[in-house]
Amino acid sequence: MARRLVVIGGDAGGMAAATQARRRDDDLEIVALERGNWTSYSACGIPYVVGGAVADLDQLVVRTPDEFRQRSRIDVRMHHEAMAIDLVAGKVEVRDHVHERTIRLPFDDLVLGTGARPLRPDLPGIDLPFVHGVQTLDDAADLLAHADKIRCREVVIVGSGYIGLEMAEAFVARGARVTLVEGANQVMRSLDRDMAGLVQAALERFGVDVRLDSPAKAFEDGTVVTEEGQFAADLVVLGLGVVPNSELAADAGIELGVRNSIRVDRRQQTSAAGVWAAGDSCESYHLVSRRPVHIALGTVTNRQARVAGINIGGGYATFPGVVGTAVTKICNTEVGRTGLSEQEADEAGLATVSAKIDSTTRAGYFPGNKPITVKLVAERVTGRLLGAQIVGEEGAAKRIDIAAVAITAGMTVHELIDVDLSYAPPFSPVWDPVATAARQAARAVDEAR
Amino acid sequence: MARRLVVIGGDAGGMAAATQARRRDDDLEIVALERGNWTSYSACGIPYVVGGAVADLDQLVVRTPDEFRQRSRIDVRMHHEAMAIDLVAGKVEVRDHVHERTIRLPFDDLVLGTGARPLRPDLPGIDLPFVHGVQTLDDAADLLAHADKIRCREVVIVGSGYIGLEMAEAFVARGARVTLVEGANQVMRSLDRDMAGLVQAALERFGVDVRLDSPAKAFEDGTVVTEEGQFAADLVVLGLGVVPNSELAADAGIELGVRNSIRVDRRQQTSAAGVWAAGDSCESYHLVSRRPVHIALGTVTNRQARVAGINIGGGYATFPGVVGTAVTKICNTEVGRTGLSEQEADEAGLATVSAKIDSTTRAGYFPGNKPITVKLVAERVTGRLLGAQIVGEEGAAKRIDIAAVAITAGMTVHELIDVDLSYAPPFSPVWDPVATAARQAARAVDEAR
Questions:
Q1: Does the pTM exceed 0.95?
Q2: Which of A138, A170, A171, A133 lies closest to A154, judged by CA?
Q3: Nearest-by-Cβ selection for A405 from B327, B409, B417
Q4: Chain B: residue nearest A43 by CA?
Q5: CB-defined contacts A:B, below 8 A
Q6: Cβ distance A435 to A413 under 8 Å?
Q7: Which residues of B does the annotation mark as catalytic?
């Protein structure tokens, strides 16, 4: 009998692993279970559908169930929800919501692609229907239906992570009055506070009412209550981060790691042999802090899923880890970050120096040049590049990849100065802003020695 | 008496070294000699002045002589031409074209920032006034005056390096009928032929008449003669590459290197102690081919000049070398390259595999996404990334920096797959095109093993 791979979750974590396994093993029987209405989609695109830049949610689908069936011979079962995993018997208990029945599905290999869900702190009224999280396309469909129905004029965003800020912009674009309430003393805590200030200014220029030091305390219909006052809201979006959907794994006795994400080895195998995990439900390893982290991003998901799929398909692959790269465009402002912020480095016990420079995205005389601010964080004494943050306008943020590669390679800021980066007037000043920042960071390292 | 640094050449190679030396040594006396009318300018911007995107040549000046005098206390002497160097006496013979006199200027340190000039092959009529090279702002001023005067309708570009192609576009933008005659069987020989074909197609879509296998044989007033026929020309631009201005150095007995560029050590010192060189006049070391090369680019110039200046100022710095990164935007098409092309790798004795992929600059569903083609060249067996080439539309080419850093770090294409590159729908597909190309290149390496 053919080996059977069962995949729990029809989005990238599970399905990219499945297609990769199929490439290597033609005989594998593959069954994929998805409890919702969509497979393999770009959740990162949801804010652009809400804001109107992308026409509808179907645009975000990378592969439909039928495409998986036809191209990869994957038996995709929609509206099928995994309820329990029996590791001893090697079976998944599945609730088939179509036929309203429960089956027990045997597996040889199992991929947990269960994803994550928006964090919903235990606050009064958090489960009221006007409070939306945005993670899956089903979430997004609910949100859009609600927004269309009530023709919302007042929106409150709670929290200022990537999704929160992107949704703030999206609702301004829809014509709503948007208030952002953030419990910390800065937006976007993945940035240092000085860089976050530039993002906040961009939000405010765009018309978002930003309230710092204002943690949400309660939700009443039509109102968000904070310590600093109440804010009228036809609709609330939660942007407080995500928590891994790891309960199914935990209940089966599979080991969890940081922030209750599913612990995996370098081949993406969980503590149970033959059970693999990839994506937002599982742990990563941070190459700079050398600590396990939970980072829920599509890039990491796809890379982990590829590794899991190669291993399931009989190959050998390991996932080296992440450096925490992320990029977004908010209110005409581009934001990129990678590695450790000053605060994260401090938490990891690393002593740092930093440098921050202002430059332009193109040659200063070239039409369309835009401002860019680059901050680099380097380790004291060694000068090793630990992190980078970029805030700027069009053409700024994708430069973060220069730092991402340099950090991965263990370069010092002194080495980064002389990397042969590309230059022509439509693309950069003769010293790319990242190299200019490296020069200043190298001086800071030298002075601190 | 103060030590005296004499700088020959008022553009970046000399002047960036001088300002760097000044930062470290307040007491240094610095004299800079420039035979032309401008100091420290962006020659790379000349095509954009010709094409009209930048208003005038003065926009390209980074620092004027007065700014150097005031900010860096550099005694800049315009219209002063170095005629000979006496290494034994430690003096430069200088022709002062303002006062029509010759002086002998003693130096303790000397920087050769003499630059390069357009290659003018020994062909009949090459010195006719309608045949222009474009290297200095003085060249550009001559060209612009000529173009304005004759209201040129027919322009022939000879050669298809960066400058040639950029000037072709610029003259189309001015309304001229432009023919490009190229001796080889492809444009832009820094690319492999398959990628060059994409550039040629872009030129042709833009209206440039491209003639391959058509080396220029002679110039007669109003005509460029090739083996394949004659082309009418009100004005001709040479784009055949450059030759280093190294005669002054050679006549003084200073050692030359590859293609008659000035040989330098890792500190940018020539074979003569206390005589330094930086920029288009001197040699670089190619980190991939491990051979000396002559690469005339502003980025390299500025990095070499910084190193020379630190050493002159009493510090210690070395220039590690180049990986041959270059980028340009031609006829709405962006072109980037770094490392070795397949042909260059072959010439360096390296066996390769390659991969080429088509993708988009943004998520496929995101408005404004543009096509991008990425080609990677990897060493057989080891999988080490040797080179990358990118041709695409807006947002494509600056990604070449990802490969430039990876090559500098000695990464394999397998390692490049898992680098944590940035992703958000406005910036990239979830697999950045460079990572997608790395996946395909890794498969090619594995298959060839």
A1: yes
A2: A171
A3: B409
A4: B425
A5: 193
A6: no
A7: 44
> Which residue does chain A place closest to B368, by CA atoms?
A53
Chain A nearest C-alpha distance from B5 (Å): 24
In sequence order, which residues have a C-beta less than 8 Å from that of residue A102 and are 6 or more positions away? A83, A93, A94, A95, A96
CA atoms within 13 A on the CB side of B220: 6
Q: What distance in Å separates residue A144's CA from the closest CA in chain B?
A: 18
The number of helix segments (H) and strand segments (E) in chain B equals 12, 25
CA A85, A91, A93, A98 dihedral sign is: positive
Query: A367 to chain B: which residues are within 8 Å by CB?
Result: 53-54
Query: In sequence order, what are the residues at sequence separation of 6 or more whose Cβ sits closer than 8 angstroms to the Cβ of residue B374?
Result: B356, B357, B359, B388, B389, B390, B399, B433, B434, B436, B437
Tens of pLDDT, residue by residue, chain B (449 residues):
789 999 999 999 999 999 999 999 999 999 999 999 999 999 999 999 999 999 999 999 999 999 999 999 999 999 999 999 999 999 999 999 999 999 999 999 999 999 999 999 999 999 999 999 998 999 999 999 999 888 879 999 999 999 999 999 999 999 999 999 999 999 999 999 999 999 999 999 999 999 999 999 999 989 999 988 999 999 999 999 999 999 999 999 999 999 999 999 999 999 999 999 999 999 999 999 999 999 999 999 999 999 999 999 999 999 999 999 999 999 999 999 999 999 999 999 999 999 999 999 999 999 999 999 999 999 999 999 999 999 999 999 999 999 999 999 999 999 999 999 999 999 999 999 999 999 999 999 999 98
